[in-house]
Design brief:
This protein is mainly α. The chain contains 9 helices and 3 strands; from the N terminus they run αααααααβββαα. The protein has helices at residues 20-33, 39-63, 67-82, 93-97, 101-105, 109-115, 122-130, 175-206, 211-214; strands at residues 134-136, 139-140, 157-158.
């Protein structure tokens, strides 16, 4: 169990400290999500790694005819859907394997506040949360890394006593700025998807895999 005074580390660090491509990607993620340091990235990667491990093990057990594996698989998919990582319906274990650390980080309260247009920048969203300007389900939450489940997302709003409730507050984001932020994020996401698709196509071409090979 361990000493309650000394909590155990809840994430795994990289196996090697100096990997150029990994460091570059981590810096980009830290900048995109306004994180304080890379620890949040490693936490998301650890959560994702555990989900993927569960998915692989459950798929192996399902192929072996394990009835209990079906129950656990449904529970895992429901959990991911409840967290907002997967659609409410139509998902399977293979969808769990396609998740990325960005999907986990997108459910952080800091990101949700920014996406809902409550903050002008991702850094301002973090500051507003730590200063107690944000409520979730009517309760003040001061942890930027709090994971917002799907049911709570609609309740994320300004604290009732916060000066940000005044529409004329000088630091409050305008509707035009909120629309611009949403457009920029959509463009970034689309570009990332194109790059991922191009990379997958290049890898398939290098491996000699054709379209006909993937047809059933």
């Amino acid at each position: 169990m361990g000493d309650p005074k000394f909590s155990r580390r809840s994430y795994d660090t990289p196996s090697h400290p100096w990997q150029g491509e990994r460091i570059k990607r981590e810096v980009e993620i830290v900048r995109e999500f306004g994180l304080k340091n890379k620890t949040e990235v490693w936490k998301a990667q650890t959560i994702l790694r555990n989900y993927r491990k569960q998915s692989r093990e459950l798929q192996a057990r399902l192929r072996g005819g394990d009835a209990q594996a079906k129950v656990e698989a449904d529970a895992l998919i429901r959990k991911c859907a409840r967290m907002g990582l997967l659609p409410v319906t139509g998902s399977d274990l293979n969808d769990v394997l396609t998740l990325s650390e960005s999907d986990i980080l997108s459910r952080r309260l800091q990101t949700v506040v920014f996406d809902k247009g409550l903050a002008a920048t991702i850094k301002q969203a973090r500051q507003m949360i730590t200063h107690g300007h944000i409520h979730v389900n009517g309760h003040r939450v001061t942890v930027p890394g709090y994971i917002v489940i799907r049911e709570e997302e609609a309740s994320v709003a300004y604290n009732d006593v916060s000066p940000f409730t005044d529409e004329m507050h000088p630091m409050r984001i305008s509707p035009e700025q909120a629309a611009h932020n949403a457009a920029v994020k959509a463009e970034v996401k689309e570009r990332a998807e194109r790059e991922a698709a191009a990379k997958a196509k290049a890898d398939a071409a290098e491996a000699g895999i054709t379209v006909e090979d993937g047809e059933t």
